[in-house]
Amino acid sequence: MLLFTYNPGKSLRVSLAPKLISMDNSKSNKPWYFHWWGALIALLFLPFFVIWLIWTKTNWSKRAKGLATIGVLILFFTLGSGHDKGQVEEVKNNLEKTNENLKQTSQKLEEKIEERTQPTIEEKTWEEKLAQLDTNNPNPDPATVQVFHRQLVKLTAMCEENDQWVSDRIVQGQNALKKRGVEATLQEIGQGFDDAVVELPDKTCEEAFATYLTGKATGQL
Question: What does residue 137 show for φ and ψ, rounded to 5 degrees?
Fold first, then answer.
């Protein structure tokens, strides 16, 4: 009491010193893993940190500590292996997709190369096709081709149809005559078709051709 009365500043300093010392001691006694840097280290080495806590900071029996240690190891091993397995599956799937894309790209390149290396087949004209059929020769003489060319030019103009339409009628006419036992060349039928259209202007090309075939089949022409 006397000390506090006569020297309050000193008494205050004396009374506060133990509190400050106590606070400093509490800070120094704080476990390292409660500091930010300690928590970071603990996270980096989490499995080992947990095992260290089990053996140093618990009052468990050795058997309990051993079982807890085994449990921690199994837990972290399972988590780690599951993560690795997922990564392996992802890598495997990516490799399969890449391989499939490479196969498709290779196939497309092969198809393009094959298309470019294949010889170009020259399309035959209809007069050439008629000449081939009539002579049974893949390379008929130009004179025969020219005969069919003149017939197609006249008939397409008079009938207002294309070369294919006229050529089909000539071939169909030959087949119809064969069924009746009449032999005639395509060149002959083409000429008869031409004459019938000219001589029967009041009839359509179909009607004129049918009239010609009837006369040819019955021997009238």
Answer: -135, 125
Residue-wise burial string across 15-36, b where 16 or more C-beta atoms lie within 10 A, e elsewhere:
eeeeeeeeeeeeeeeeeebeee
| Rounded-to-integer distance, Cα 178 and Cα 217, Å | 9
Residue 8 lies in a domain: no
Amino acid at 18: P
- Greatest distance between any 2 Cα atoms in the chain: 163
Decide if pLDDT at 179 tops 60: yes
Last residue of a domain, one of 74, 102, 121: 121
Number of structural domains the chain divides into: 2
User: Is 61 contained in some domain?
Assistant: yes
The residue range of the domain holding 209 is 126-218
The pLDDT-based confidence of 205 (bands split at 50, 70, 90) is: very high
User: Is position 5 within any domain?
Assistant: no
Within a 10 A sphere around the Cβ of 105, how many other Cβ atoms?
10
Low-confidence winner among 31-35, 57-61, 169-173 (lowest mean pLDDT): 31-35
Are 205 and 151 contacting, i.e. CB atoms less than 8 angstroms apart? Answer: no
d(CA 78, CA 47) in angstroms, rounded, equals 12
Alpha helices in 29-162 (DSSP H): 36-44, 46-56, 62-117, 126-135, 142-159
9 domain-assigned = no
* 199 in Cβ contact with 153 (< 8 Å): no
Q: How far apart are CA 215 and CA 169, in angstroms?
A: 16
46 and 111 together in one domain: yes
132 & 116 share domain: no
